[in-house]
Structures are given as structure tokens and as C-alpha cells.
Specification:
There is one protein chain. The protein has one domain (29-46, 53-235). 79% of the residues lie in helices and 0% in strands. The protein has helices at residues 10-28, 30-50, 59-80, 84-88, 91-97, 102-133, 146-167, 173-201, 206-237. The longest helix has 32 residues, at 102-133. The radius of gyration is 20 Å and the shape is globular. InterPro entries: Cyt_c_biogenesis_CcmB. It is found in: Membrane. It is a multi-pass membrane protein.
Length: 238
């Protein structure tokens, strides 16, 4: 009796690839550990630099930018490692031999990168608050900082996934990823830093600045994620 093999649905393929990434990382904890240690080291460097400033420095005015600098630098480390296992162990070639939509690979990898970046931020953001913001009074709507953190993380994970795929086979891929990533993500970084600073400072009209910045960041996410999704088939097959 002949057995008919049914092709897995796109969603099943997505879940399988995502589960592979999550299970491997939670088993080794290689990326999360390295990103977490790096985030702590960056905080120590920030602390040493700001420790030499005068008391007249308004830390709230620069705290949003410092927080997003921490997130971008930490994200670069993780995104650079996102395809390392697939490349080193030949897993990527095996995935490409499977008859599946290449955009599914992008969605699964970008989703796993979002989870990993958010996991590190759960540790890094409270540490940032403990290091720099415990002695200052914050606006009552400070909890809304979760919105730019989520929007910014999604955008950086999507763009970073595309760029890490582009640079995986290049010489000096660490430098190349940074050179491509930072200029492309700058509008998102600017919008998220602006919205975060508005919440921290809480000056008059800060909610208008917050809403406008989040709208800019959200629009940027939609456009860049769609572009990355459309181009991914060409990029990974090149």
C-alpha cells in the first residue's frame, strides 16, 4: 500500500525552525550568556565614564541614548552569532535543500532573535535603572518605555537577521555587519531613543513626542520588515 507524504504547512515549517533555534540556545545558552556578559561590561564602561562628570549633568537627558546604545551594541553581538551554528555545522546547506519558502527561514530566525534580545533586555534594562536612575525622579508614565523597547527590538531583529545572512560568508563579518547595521537602523534608533528620553524627562508635551516617535518607529518597522521578507529569498540563495 502506497504511503502519501503530505508536505508540512508553512506554519508547521515555521514552528519547526523556530523550535530548533530555541532548543539549541536554551541547551547551550551560548548566545544569551555572551550577550548578558557583554551588556554588563558596557554598563561598567558607561559607569566609569559618567563617574567623571560633574553633578550638574542632567543624566535624564542622556539616559535614553545610553540605554539604546547599550541595546544596539549588545544586539550586534547576538545577531552576529545568529547563523554561526548553521554555518559551522553545515546546517544551513541542509535547510536550503528542503523544499520550503525561504521567507519562512527569515521569519523563524527573526522571531528567535526577538526572543533572545528581549531575554537579555529583561536583565540589562533593570541593571541600567539600578546603575543610573535610582537617584532621580521619573515621570509617572515611565512604564510606557516597554513600547519603544518592543518596537525597537522587533525592528533590529528583522534587519539584523537579513544583514547577518548577507555577511555570513564575508571576510571580517563582524565589522561588515556593524558597518551595514548601524546606518540602516539609525532612523529606528533615533525614534526609540527620542521616545524613551521623552518618557524619562517628562517635560511638557512629552506624550506628543512619544506618540510621534513611536509612530515613526512603527512605520519604519513595517517597511523594513516587508523589504527584508521580500529580499530574503534572493539573499540566502545567492
Amino acid at each position: 500500500m502506497a504511503v502519501t507524504l503530505r508536505k508540512p504547512s508553512t506554519f508547521q515549517q515555521y514552528k519547526t525552525l523556530l523550535r530548533k533555534d530555541l532548543e539549541r540556545e536554551f541547551r547551550t545558552r551560548e548566545m544569551l550568556t555572551s550577550m548578558g556578559i557583554y551588556a554588563v561590561l558596557v554598563l561598567v564602561v558607561f559607569g566609569a565614564a559618567l563617574g567623571q562628570t560633574t553633578p550638574a549633568l542632567d543624566l535624564l537627558q542622556v539616559a535614553g541614548g545610553l540605554l539604546w546604545a547599550l541595546i544596539v551594541f549588545t544586539s550586534l553581538l547576538g545577531l552576529n552569532r545568529s547563523f554561526a551554528h548553521e554555518k559551522e555545522q553545515g546546517c544551513l546547506e541542509g535547510i536550503l535543500l528542503v523544499p520550503l519558502d525561504r521567507s519562512v527561514i527569515f521569519l523563524a530566525k527573526a522571531t528567535s532573535n526577538v526572543f533572545f534580545l528581549l531575554a537579555v533586555e529583561v536583565v540589562a534594562v533593570p541593571l541600567f535603572y539600578f546603575f543610573f536612575l535610582t537617584g532621580v525622579s521619573l515621570a509617572s508614565d515611565f512604564w510606557l518605555v516597554l513600547v519603544p523597547l518592543l518596537v525597537g527590538t522587533i525592528g533590529m531583529a528583522g534587519i539584523g537577521t537579513l544583514l547577518s545572512t548577507i555577511t555570513i560568508n564575508t571576510r571580517g563579518k563582524d565589522v561588515m555587519l556593524a558597518v551595514l547595521f548601524v546606518p540602516l537602523v539609525f532612523p529606528l534608533l533615533y525614534a526609540c531613543a527620542s521616545s524613551t528620553t521623552a518618557l524619562l524627562v517628562g517635560a511638557e508635551g512629552y506624550m506628543d513626542v512619544f506618540v510621534q516617535s513611536i509612530a515613526l518607529a512603527g512605520g519604519y518597522d513595517v517597511i523594513m520588515l516587508l523589504v527584508s521578507w521580500v529580499l530574503y529569498d534572493f539573499v540566502i540563495s545567492a
